[in-house]
């Protein structure tokens, strides 16, 4: 009986063990399924939140790698807690940034509402929009459509601004354009009568410009340039047309005179022939007629005919002379008119040539003229082994004058300084405006000992000018650098040495002459 009981118990135990085993298997299977689901969830979460927070990205990636090992969940507890904290922080940050964005939207909407020209309908829409965004956003998705709406409002306002042609805010690129135009104007040549317009534009460009002024400036300068081009073109064309007309008139006269003179020549020949025939007839009458009365009669007749021929010849000659005189008169008239046109055109050309070589503001030779002069003087140095100095002079802190007293005051100061430099030099010496507030002096035949005193005189002359801007006495100084053409040196290198000397003069406190021998 006992054996049977033991046997049953053993059987039961075996069964129980089997049951337990299969339960364990089911539990393990369940655990694996849950792991897999958790892993999938973590993967999805990683994908959705990727890029929002690097810390969170890294932590989720680490957890994914750990979960793949299918170890005890307790091993990941620490990581899961970390992720939870990061998520909470992320949520707080997101909520506060959504709140900030919401306030930003409110501010922009309020600003738009201040646009006076905004129609009532748009104003009402904007007020409604403002009311709508009073409540906090919970997700980015709620926030995005609001931005979209606000952009639409903005577009409407911009459209209105365009329509009403009202002022635009000046941007950095506009300022850059204004600067660019300013320097283009400096490089362009304008006629003296255009200078006032150009100066006004430059003054506008140098100050605070607005969008409309910038457009106008571009427009005016462009039309002045086009005007100059057309004028040049039409004056050249005009001259050529006149030249052509005169030449064809003179050509016509010459060919008429030629035809007339050919005709006259044959008439003269005919008349001469007739005259000699009459004289020959007299000879014949003399030899064959013996009766004196008849002879007299024949000679009288021949003489009278000869007289007629000679009178005719005289008339023809007079007519020829008159015609020739008339033709010559017309030709002279045409030619004198042409001479006047030529000299007028020559003056224009000379004026243009002068204009091309002169700086319009200071009336000093410009950079092109400087280059020509440098070349000529350099060739002389090479031929005669003479001394030649190049000096570069730059006004100190000129920007301050422009900034404090305006660009047109700066322009006037430049004119005065240019004149003063020019008048402190001898005729054999040369000064050009190199650009901006920089001048270049070409000084031939000056010894090493004399160059510094000469340039110091120029410098001191400028310093002594009693400038008074807006009632305020101002001293303007020059910094000068100079170099002598060394034996075998090219002119550009000398120029660069003079320029470096100027740089040193600026470095050493300005108002100085530095010589690089
Ligand atoms: N009024 C006027 N100003 C000009 C002209 N050309 C250049 N300038 C101005 O000259 C100034 C030159 O300034 P900077 O190059 O800074 O030199 P700076 O103020 O003279 O200072 P340093 O040379 O360093 O002593 C700028 O403000 C230019 O706008 C011009 O034709 N007329």
From TrEMBL:
Parts forming coiled coils: 292-355
Cofactor: Mg(2+)
PANTHER family: DIGUANYLATE CYCLASE DGCM-RELATED, REGULATORY COMPONENTS OF SENSORY TRANSDUCTION SYSTEM
This enzyme's EC code(s): 2.7.7.65
Enzymatic reactions: 2 GTP = 3',3'-c-di-GMP + 2 diphosphate
One GO CC term on file: plasma membrane
Entry's Gene Ontology molecular function annotations: diguanylate cyclase activity
Keyword presence, Coiled coil: yes
BP terms from Gene Ontology: cell adhesion involved in single-species biofilm formation; negative regulation of bacterial-type flagellum-dependent cell motility
Top EC group: transferase
The protein's name in its UniProt record: diguanylate cyclase
Keyword Coiled coil attached: yes
SMART domains linked: GGDEF (SM00267)
Annotated InterPro entries: DGCcoil, Diguanylate_Cyclase, GGDEF_dom, Nucleotide_cyclase, Rev_trsase/Diguanyl_cyclase
NCBIfam families, per database record: GGDEF (TIGR00254)
SUPFAM superfamilies reported in the protein's UniProt record: Nucleotide cyclase
Domain GGDEF: start-end pairs: 386-517
Keywords: Coiled coil
